[in-house]
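Q: Protein A?
A:
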Amino acid sequence: MSRLAKSLRNREAEVFAPTLTGLGERVHLASPDTGLTTHIEDVHAVLHYEDLRDVVLVGHSYGGAVITGVADRARDRISRLIYLDAFVLKDGQSVADVCPPGMVEALTGLARQTGGDWRVPLPFTMEQLGVSNPDDVAWIERGMAMQPLKTMVEAVTLSPEPWPFPVSYVLCTGRSMGLFEQFGLYAQESGWDYHEMPWTHAAPALVPDECAELLMRIAGSEGSRAAV
C-alpha cells in the first residue's frame, strides 16, 4: 500500500497507512490470538491517538473487513468509507463466511501444512492477482507475510444503527477472483456510490496514481447515507 500512500501524499493528502499487527514490519508480533478484532483496534487506535476527524477511511481486500469494524466504532470521526475491491461484512459475519465454498477449508489446510496451524500464506498466485512485471512481483513478494488464520474466521460485531456517512465501493474488473463481485452488487443494491475500474486486484501497487486520482475524486464528492 506504500505506493498508493506515496501517490496520495504527492497530491497533498494527509495519509495514515497503519501496518496491522502481525503483518509487514510488525510480523514479529503475530500470534494465534491475532484476529480481526486486533486489526480493528490497530486502526481505531490511530484515529484516537492522532485525534483524527473528518476521515476518509479506505480499505483494500481484507482491509474492507477491518474498516467495517473501525467505522462502526468511530462513527463521529468518519466522513466517508471507501471499499477498494474489498470484503464487506455484516453483523456477525467473518471473512470466511463470505468466501466461496471450499476456500476456508483450503486456508485451514494451508495453515496446517505451512503455518503451524494458525497462519496462512497468500492463497493466490501473482498471475491470479494480475501481476506479471518482474519488478512488481518482487516488490509485492518482499512485503508478503503469512496472515493469522483467526483474522479470517473471527466475526465482526456491528451496531444496527445506519451509518451517518456516505459509503463508496470500487470494483476492479480487470481480472475476476470470484470474491468481490458480490460486494459490488450489494453496494449497488444498497444505493452506495459505486465505481467499476478496469484494474486488477493489485491496483494499489500496479496503478497507484490512477487509484489516488479516483480516491481523491470520491473523497471530494457528495454521496447518500447508507446502512450496512
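Q: Protein B?
A:
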Amino acid sequence: MMRLWSWLGLLLILCAPVATAAKKAEADYAGDDGGYLIYSVGTIRIGMHFDFPYRRVATADGSVVDDWKGRIEPTVGGAFTLKVKNPDFSGVETGHVIVRRLPPGSYAIDNFAFAGQSPGGGAIGWSSAKPFRIAFTIKPGEATYIGSFMRSPSYGTPLAEELGAAGFFVISDQSARDLPIARAKRSALPQVIPQVADVALFGSAALQNRIPE
C-alpha cells in the first residue's frame, strides 16, 4: 500500500500547476571587483520544478553577511506540460546554462525545496532532511562554475523505494557541455574555475553525483 500511495503521489506532484510566467532575471552586480557564477539547471526525463537557494555568507575580507541571494531553478512549462521551456541543451538532461555577475566573497547552498499535492488534495513541501552545505567562492575577475543541477523522478531507479514520490537531484560536472554555452551567452567571460561539490559525501539519497544504475 505504501508503494501504491508513493506512485499516486508522484503522479499528483508531476501534474501540480507550476508557474508559467517567465522568471525575472536576477540583477547583475555592477562593481568593478565582481566575478561570475556559472551553472546549469534543468530536469532528467520529465520537467519538474525545484529550487536551490544560494546566498553570500561572507565578503572577500571575511565580514559575515547574508546578501546577494539567488535561486537555482528550472524554467518549466505549466500544468501537464512537464517540459523545460526553450532549453539551451536537451537529451537525458534538458535545461539552461545561467551566468550571473556577483560580488566577491564566500557563498553557500544549504537547502532545496519543491512542492506538490498529497493524495488527499493538500499541498506538500519538501526540503532536505539531512544538513548539507555546497560552498563556493566568487573572486574578482574570475568565473566560478558550480556544476549541473538536475532533478529526476525516482521511479525506475534503485532509489524508488527509499525516496518514493520525491525524486532526487543529480549535481555533477558538465563543464564540457555548459561552458561553451556560457561563453556564447557572454563572450567576455574571464578564466573559469570549477568548484563542483561531490554531493555523495553528504550521505543523502536525494543528492546524487550521477544517475544510479
